[in-house]
């Protein structure tokens, strides 16, 4: 277990999440992709903390990341609900009235 | 004194714009304010004494944006006083002519008063930002004048083209100003300080770019070829007053910028670019004249002659940057350039007002629609003939004084300037041709039943032409103002 | 380092105001929510007063101010930039409320709207004032979450879509920002900018590039710059007028100042000025072109906002190479805020108008409103003597001074392009047409805003003195 | 005395301008006012000719408005004033309508001539010079109802103005050389500038004097009323060309080439235009060609520095030619024609007119002892001194003048044919009467034409030469005088005995000069002007549009590229290429007419490209963000 | 050694389940897979002595996935077991971007010469975290509180179709609007 390997895994998680965020149509699935990306960020943050600078700052950062994840997901659910109610759809593709 | 001259029309414009005063009151207020401006400028000239060693008279300075060393700095010298006077006179003439404007007269008066304030401000500005503010505001005002009171089918489009083109020019100018500001140490937008410092004197590349930006901006406004294409449609579609103001005053902003900013503040770069300027001037003279010769529309023709006439100015200021000739010749060229600005303002203003009469009566500017106007409208014909001859540079009118000085000075500096000489000839040809088509022969086409000029039309035109005559016969009245300033300018360029 | 919470009095006013407004709103009948509005306005006024009192007496144009910079809790800088941001944000929120009264009064969620406006403003101030990556990340959330809600507030399908896009782009940007913060703090050994400045200089450049770019991307979302700008026109079009006015103004103030602070500490060998300059150029160009053919006034203003962000990124690009950059940024921000809000106030004053053609007859019917429109649009173009002209002047100067003369040329050309669509709107307003009903409060806000635009432009000396006297001279 | 000089210039100017402005309302008083003014001018001019004042007023920086009466001016000024007065007298009876305008313009013209004669600086000279041109335009086109007359004025004005450009050039050269703008300083100019100045003045003078190759305008100018021709094309305007050369003869002499050039141009003009005159069938055309030819002698005189002779010839010719033009005018008014065949025997209808015209013709022919005989020989003596060829050409030209003078003389004094009336009224309705007021000036002029030769004969000639400072110039010997008188008489008799065969058409058509000018100058200029105007409308004015279109093409390509990155790169760029070509083709096909539309379309397209990035598809936003950020990263790492 | 093996196992699990999120054919399974991925990462955190944060991660994510499941069933009326899962678009660009991102990030991870470790972890990590939160990084937590407040307000505003006036009447007196009794 080295910094490089941990970062590699984090990068993999991040990229998989990005793939999901881009390829998925359902809002909730896009959110899952985003969560997976954050997962990777958490792992990377842990790796940096442990291998580079094990200061309390790094721990607070992790805390912030987790908070952000929670908050963003809460908003995500709210927005998805709003979309569902107003457009009877949960697909990002269906909501393209506003363009150009 | 100067500030009140600048702000009087602005205040009057605001007073006319906000409350709903009756149209009659608005019209006469307009005339009264412009007349007051003429009086004020007259007093200014009467009290003007050529300041010692290139200084300014009636200088006023107030804090404005101290953090960028920009201040409300106004003042006049021999280069700006004639243009201030021209502005006052032309706007006064337009106010009288505007008595007949019946489309939203109140707003019309307010707009032109505001426009007058911007022109006055520009010619008095001694700070680049103040200069730029007025430069841009004049564009906005003129845009409104063309779009709102133009009479062409495409007035909106012409106005937009005018706005876009000149706005692009103004931005180029702004870039140049910023360049000057940054180059000066300490940074400043103050024109006299910049002139004293002459920044970029030792930076040929940077100086070249900054001057290029200035030249572009001023060339669009002047306009010189190939940046002139906004001018003909703007004139064709503007009202008579709009055209008169545009040609008589607004075009001068470009050439005034040369002598006020570009030449004295960047002498080194100016000398480097002098050949280019000279070439553009020659090309404008010949090109403008030739294209004007081919026009079939009276107003477009006059518009193109503006390109030709402003080309003389460009030619002269270009020649002033060539150190080859003697100082006397270059001074004469610069004096001629400033004289030409005034002269062109008076004469072309009159011609555009006269062209406005054509449109007012019949709605057509086409030369071939007329003929024999000398019979149906003898006064109009006489005025137009005088205007045409004045414009083609016949002696006893200001145009001759200007052109003689421009050519004698320029050729005295470089023989290449003689290439532009045929410009005089072609201008003569085109004006005589127009005269022949419009005035002579038997009345036909739209000439039949053509009502001759009314007093409100004849008085301003006559006034402008009489001033041109006065300058033509007693040129020293004007030249005594200009000559010391042009000597200073040539001195500065020669640094 | 001081720890006195009193130093954060303006922020506390906003937070407290938000809480009290919400609480009050919960107990107020629908038609008496104006009490909540009054509370919010009182909180804003209190914040304004305290911000003005706390305005730093010594002028420091450049971030860092030579080491004597005042910070609270080690992460909240009390310098001129913060002071100006506070004032501008508070004033902007006040104007938003003013222009939104007609639209919001008596709606079901009026008091919540005020709460969210206050919170969003607070977020913008935190973003702008902080010099710590962690606070930056949290501030990002605080600035963006109210925006999602404000966009979706009107519950139309369009609003829902706009909220969705705003949210999804915001979430991605938040993740990027967190990723960047992780990388930067990891390699620099701390999250405070002082640590970054020290640590990044010796850190591997590639890591610095990835980290800083990610943080910057997050801020670009908040500001509405390429490549994360797409939500701005959608949200502007879909949201209510007051919300649109808010989201095109307030978050940008915070994000751009934050971006400037960040770019200021990024180490030298990487071409940050070039990159930010390119992004600025791309932002303004894309937005101006996209705005050309818009017929919907809101969407047009949305794109216009993006283009203005392009200009605003210019001083950010040169923040570390010239002391003129920060004052320029602040001047532009102040001018832009009042101008943009004035334009939105005109929109709000003609509630029925959506397309540009709907503004026909405005000049005839409401000359004052038309004048406000003229002033605001000409100001957006950058015509003197208006507020944005002053901004453009200083920004162009700063960018040139910082070595990005090409960017100045690009910006100038863009300004000309922008003239097309602004003028199109103006022309419509001056054509004869059917009179449309207008709203009184918004009209008042528009007139006040127009006066503000002129005041900022003409009172340039005062404004520039506020943002840093002498730093440009 | 200086006041008188100023008055001499300003009185006619003010009165003339006043009459012009007042217009028809002053028609009644105009002739009398004009005559009085001209009389005043004559008195004043004699006074200043005696007093020789020198004066100046501030004008331009570095150049005053200088007037002075020197010996040369003292001779020419009264002559011009006198002719003006006589012409106005004649016109009072001759000109029917718009008398105020006519009188006013004439007085203005006279004022300009006075200033020209007295000018001491280049700006002053040019000032008056151009006013002469302008008033001549107005006078030639006096009957503006007929467009061809105005057109003739235009031709005259433009041709002379073309030559006038030389004065601008000379002024520039004077400044460049640093001598100042005074005429007397010009010979001191340093080398290249002295030549430029000389060339400029030479061209200007040749243009006004209707010398080759500028002669054609004089033919056109015959469209003007006869009094105008009498004044402008004999005594004043055309003569001023010769006068200028006489005045700047020192400058011509200071260069190695200018004098000979002037001399040869003068001699050749005298010769060729003499032949042209001989070929004319129109009396006024004949007189016009003769004018150019006679001015050729003046120019020749100036070229060979025979200033005294030139001056004398100038003055004598003024009287003679004014006389003939007025006579032609009297017949034209009375008979309605100026065609020579129709004028057969005209002299017999009004004997006084006939006698006067006869004196004029004989003088023109160079018959001794009439004026032109002696003055011409004074010039030819100078030419002989210069070169024999020049002299012989001059002598041949003199023979030709005797030829055409004889042609007129014999024709008008033939018996009145029975069907004379058939030839009348070709130009206008004749009045069939010649008034006293028309005849009186003829008598005065005839006397002048007879006796002014004294100026070139001792003892007056010596005085004149001394006064003009050219005392050393050769005087004609008795042989020369006799030879020329003999040639004149012989030619007169030859013409009497063997009337001329019709001469080649190119001679009658003034050497085809007008056509040549038209083909070589006017049409190309007009073509160029039209081409440039088209260029301006179609190319320059649309450059903005074009730039927009170009940008849009780039943008479209960029847009395609953008899509291509997202999806099928290759296929789409191929499509893009095809569409690009199509768009280009369409744009070109649409051509200039569609330019305005294409500006709008170009704007739309550009905007369309930008908006195409705004697909509304969130995943594409994500992708584009990722792509841009990757590019940014690459940039950061690459440009270090 | 043991740590290494555990790490690798967890890493493979985390990534594999992460991939599975988008490969499984129902949304419910995707949820489980995501939760598994998070748990694996949370366990990795334990490996680097971050017990507190690791546990928090595991707990939070488990809860969140539960919320997500409930959300899908209750609010959106989906049957998680039966939901078909082929809602993708533009797979290829997505794949390209994802692979590109991975290559860039992985290359960075492997090739960048990371600096050496500075300092050592505090003896009591939780205490040091608490001290940091309450002292040097106090502003972070101070800001988090308005964030949470804003989130609550914002989420409720968006998610609830009816405000209090819809439920309680315009004067908030609880008048039942549907009963037709208009408030006075």
Automatic annotation (TrEMBL), chain A:
<keyword id="KW-0812">Transmembrane</keyword>
<dbReference type="GO" id="GO:0042773">
    <property type="term" value="P:ATP synthesis coupled electron transport"/>
</dbReference>
<dbReference type="Pfam" id="PF00420">
    <property type="entry name" value="Oxidored_q2"/>
</dbReference>
<keyword id="KW-0520">NAD</keyword>
<dbReference type="InterPro" id="IPR039428">
    <property type="entry name" value="NUOK/Mnh_C1-like"/>
</dbReference>
<keyword id="KW-0813">Transport</keyword>
<dbReference type="GO" id="GO:0050136">
    <property type="term" value="F:NADH dehydrogenase (quinone) (non-electrogenic) activity"/>
</dbReference>
<feature type="transmembrane region" description="Helical">
    <location>
        <begin position="60"/>
        <end position="83"/>
    </location>
</feature>
<dbReference type="GO" id="GO:0048038">
    <property type="term" value="F:quinone binding"/>
</dbReference>
<protein>
    <recommendedName>
        <fullName>NADH-quinone oxidoreductase subunit K</fullName>
        <ecNumber>7.1.1.-</ecNumber>
    </recommendedName>
</protein>
<feature type="transmembrane region" description="Helical">
    <location>
        <begin position="33"/>
        <end position="53"/>
    </location>
</feature>
<dbReference type="InterPro" id="IPR001133">
    <property type="entry name" value="NADH_UbQ_OxRdtase_chain4L/K"/>
</dbReference>
<keyword id="KW-1003">Cell membrane</keyword>
<keyword id="KW-0830">Ubiquinone</keyword>
<keyword id="KW-1278">Translocase</keyword>
<comment type="function">
    <text>NDH-1 shuttles electrons from NADH, via FMN and iron-sulfur (Fe-S) centers, to quinones in the respiratory chain. The immediate electron acceptor for the enzyme in this species is believed to be a menaquinone. Couples the redox reaction to proton translocation (for every two electrons transferred, four hydrogen ions are translocated across the cytoplasmic membrane), and thus conserves the redox energy in a proton gradient.</text>
</comment>
<dbReference type="GO" id="GO:0005886">
    <property type="term" value="C:plasma membrane"/>
</dbReference>
<comment type="subunit">
    <text>NDH-1 is composed of 14 different subunits. Subunits NuoA, H, J, K, L, M, N constitute the membrane sector of the complex.</text>
</comment>
<keyword id="KW-1133">Transmembrane helix</keyword>
<keyword id="KW-0874">Quinone</keyword>
<keyword id="KW-0472">Membrane</keyword>
<comment type="similarity">
    <text>Belongs to the complex I subunit 4L family.</text>
</comment>
